[in-house]
Amino acid sequence: MTRRHLLSSADLARDEVEAILTTAQSMHDVQRREVKKLPTLRGRTIINLFFEDSTRTRSSFEIAGKWMSADTINIAAKGSSASKGESLRDTVKTICAMSVDALVIRHNASGACHQVAQWVDASVINAGDGTHEHPTQALLDAYTLRGRLGGSLDGRHVVIVGDLAHSRVFRSNVITLGRLGARVTVVAPPTLMPSGIGAWAARDGFATAWDLDDVLDAASPGDRPDAVMMLRVQRERMSGGFFPTEREYTAGYGLTRERLAHLYAVVPDIPILHPGPMNRGLEISAEAADATSSVILEQVSAGVAVRMAVLYHLLAGSDAPSEKAEAS
Amino acid sequence: MSRDIGSRDLLIRGARVLGEGPADLLVRDGRIAEIGSLSGGSGAGPGGSASRDAQVIDVDGLVLLPGLVDLHTHLREPGREDAETVSSGSAAAAAGGFTAVLAMANTDPVTDTAEVAERVFDLGRAAGLVDVHPVGAVSKALAGKELAELGLMARSRARVRVFSDDGRCVSDARLMRRALDYVKAFGGVISQHSQDSRLADSAACCHEGELSGRLGLPGWPGVAEEVVVARDVMLARHTGSRVHVAHVSTAGSVEVLRWAKAQGIAVTAEVTPHHLALGTELLTGYDPVFKVNPPLRPTEDQLALRGALVEGLIDAVATDHAPHARHDKEHAFPDAAFGMLGLETAVGIVAELFVGPGLLSWAQVADRMSAAPAHIAGLTDQGRPIAVGEPANLVLIDPSAPWTVQASASQSLSRNNPWHGRELPVRVHATFLRGECTAYRGAVRGQFDIEELS
Asked: What are phi and psi of B16, to 5 degrees?
């Protein structure tokens, strides 16, 4: 795989996704060792350039880089762009003047990573851009799901529920899960659906629904979900009038105790995913978050392995990872 | 008008007036003195009465139109002289075949007083390349709260007749109603930037549809324009006043215009070359050069706008030329400035879309880009017929001179040019303001030797 940037999940063909997930498996094995460090990226400099707050994604990339022996540096650039008068181009050109090999960028504006990739020589990795995409999240979700569903997602039915309109996790997942042959149904009230999703779903081959219980209670066994992913609902959305009250949202779209019990009766041990951070009691009940079939912490753990694999594929050339691992 | 010392007669030979058969034109003292059939150098025809030192240009096959008039230009002066000045914007206009532009009021300070209006007007006179007519703000500081001094601007030396808060919508229905009522006293018109701020707020930057959903960009739905157009035509009917719809961008707005004009409501409308020619899909790469307000729309809207321009439901083409300093376009897409250049490419785009395919004749182009906008703006010396006694505000267009747009080769101080790399089928050969050549093959007066004119 000779790819310089990871800007969108659409960049990755199925064989590239498979290659990253296979590498991630090797990396996951490394994580379980006492000494976790690989020499693969020794001497490389990776900047985590975060224009927006993040705990898990930033630390996940930081650990991934460190375990591969890269020099990783975090820059919190929040509020240092348009508001202070410096253009995004000047900000990234300045940083890249310090001989940087990769920029891992989180930005509150959709498309920021695409723009930066036009301006710099370094590899650009999208760690979440506005309400656009979050490709490594989709990769780690796919990795986690494959582990729980027997290695293949072909024909598996994944239900994604929540604030689709503002979710970069949804946008990347619908692409990556589709690449791996999964069937995806996305569920939200009409006000939290992205505009034009009807045409989009028809073109890209996923389904949409407004009624969560209809989807979970599918009459035909073939339509029953194999996994359910709950998305975070930002409480700020309330001020936009996207839905009347939290109580009403939870009643319609939350994975409540009752809904979980009902779901378990149909599909025992269904994997439950959430990209975090969770609003317990809003989109997911404590019972669901802590259920035995919840894979939420596995997602976090997979995040490091998947990001190691992405860094490996973008920065380390074409040697097989296992050889590198052995060499250490 | 007395004859200027040193001004020479100009004889334009073999021009296709409004794209029709060739004729000779004698220009004297800034006016068209004679028009006749091709003289052929025999001494007969209008050339015969030219003075001995008349400058003669043979323009065999070039199309002669009245100078173009732009209802919608941002010249950025005062306030953002790093992006454009009245002088540089005038140069871009002249190079694009324009002899008059309406300069929008969203400068710093805002053109909301007679003093600022006269300042812009005087800067235009000093540049001397096109007639610069300032547009007055509808509301003080474009704040949408209180009327600006519309009457004083109208009575000023700048004789302001077009008022607009462009860049912002006059949202308050009562303020809009008062403005429409008030400008009746001096034959003014309100040019509205139609954008319901509750349906499309200031963050909205991509046509709301499948692509905005995929790209995760805040959507700007067509209905946010259409509800304001619909409200305003009803207010125009109620007040018996004139409303002009700036940069119409949707098929739905065209339907409202169709209805309103059928009712006899005094509504006019303009469309930009970019809304006619460029589509939403250009935003796929998040290049802020394609960020404009209203946003680029899908094909079905573009086709409806083209049809409406041909039909005359949309009266005029206007550029919404909006220069921006490079650094204001180099932010993340949602943070970058709105707007794109347009003066130097407008007639080329119109020729490509309409004249080439036979949808509009050159005479109709003269209507949509000169006569109609001049009429809407109340200009009496622009957009006139090409006839004896009329002011010699003229443009010569080479109808078979394809050229490729280069962003770096512009009279504008800015480079936010969405047409970069596009081949246009026709080129502005020369522009004349009251008989004086202001632009020749992309160069403006001072950049070419008048003796080279041919």
From this structure: -90, 95
How far does Cα A18 stand from its chain's mean position?
16
* Residues in chain A closer than 8 A to B212 (CB atoms): 194-196
CA–CA gap between residue A76 and residue A57 (Å, rounded): 13
**B67 CB within 8 Å of a chain A CB:** no
Task: Considering only the beta carbons, identify the residue of B213, B286, B331 that sits closest to A195.
Answer: B213
Q: What is the pLDDT of residues B71-81, one digit of tens each?
A: 999 999 999 99
Query: B336 to chain A: nearest residue by CA?
Result: A82
Alpha-carbon distance of B420 to B432, in angstroms, equals: 26
Report the pLDDT value the prediction gives residue B46, as an integer from 0 to 100.
Answer: 52
How close A168 gets to chain B, by Cα (Å)?
8
Model pLDDT for residues B371-421, shown as the tens digit of each residue: 999 999 999 999 999 999 999 999 999 999 999 999 999 999 999 999 999
Task: Give bridge partners of residue B32 from the DSSP assignment.
Answer: B27
* Contact at CB, B215 and A88, closer than 8 angstroms: no
CATH number of B68-377: 3.20.20.140
CATH architecture of the domain with range B10-64+388-452: Roll (2.30)
What does the pLDDT average to over B140-151? 98
Peptide bond into B109 cis (omega under 30): yes
Question: What residue in A sits closest to B220 (Cα-Cα)?
Answer: A195
Rounded to an integer, what distance in angstroms lies between the CA atom of residue B159 and that of residue B161?
6
**Partner residue opposite B216 with nearest CB, options A171, A197, A199:** A171
Q: Is the pTM of this model over 0.95?
A: no
Q: Give all domains of chain A, ordered by start, each with its CATH number.
A: 9-134+303-327 (3.40.50.1370), 136-299 (3.40.50.1370)
CB B36 within 8 A of CB B17: no
Chains A & B: contacts with CB separation below 8 Å: 85
Q: Does the active-site annotation cover B320?
A: yes
CB proximity under 8 Å: B 177-236 to A: 208-217, 219, 221
In this predicted model, what pLDDT tens digit does every residue of B323-347 receive, in sequence order? 999 999 999 999 999 999 999 999 9
